[in-house]
Amino acid sequence: DTAVSQTPKYLVTQMGNDKSIKCEQNLGHDTMYWYKQDSKKFLKIMFSYNNKELIINETVPNRFSPKSPDKAHLNLHINSLELGDSAVYFCASSPGLAGVITDTQYFGPGTRLTVL
Amino acid sequence: GESVGLHLPTLSVQEGDNSIINCAYSNSASDYFIWYKQESGKGPQFIIDIRSNMDKRQGQRVTVLLNKTVKHLSLQIAATQPGDSAVYFCAENSGGSNYKLTFGKGTLLTVNP
Asked: Which residue of A lies nearest to B108 if distances are taken between CA atoms?
């Protein structure tokens, strides 16, 4: 039933580790996104993929690498985790139809990452 | 509580009152705007949207007003209920084909019973 799902919901790990967050959407959308929400609730886009192709990369450290095996999945892998990576990460998807202005994004429930 | 240290703009209303949440957007070229509601521990949820060729749009208990002259967006919630308590974000799409939304700071709405 869930439109945009993420796993895990909570992730607690040590500094220096490598971890992945998975995202899946069953809406048939062409575009998927990763956002980071900091402790002040500020929501900022990190990446966007359209039909498995990267279209937005917002000056995110190279330690973050998104991977889209198909257009329904966009996973986020993070290498060498740092304290500052602690945040809530949201996946989203949108129809992504070219030339359509009203491209509404639908969000997943979020993954709370805590780096110790 | 969760709001400590957040430094979000806050709005506190009584149940049954109308609420108005304001947002100033940054890009005069933005052509599409969305309001999202984020409840504690959940992802942002779409509420209502408006295109730049409109100045008002109504939904169920919500109305969005757009003033392009001063780059201002507002969300009005009629007969506010405790379930409306959440952080509300405005987001703007500056157009083009890059599907990029820029989110505002967020406003914490608290509805008192």
From this structure: A41
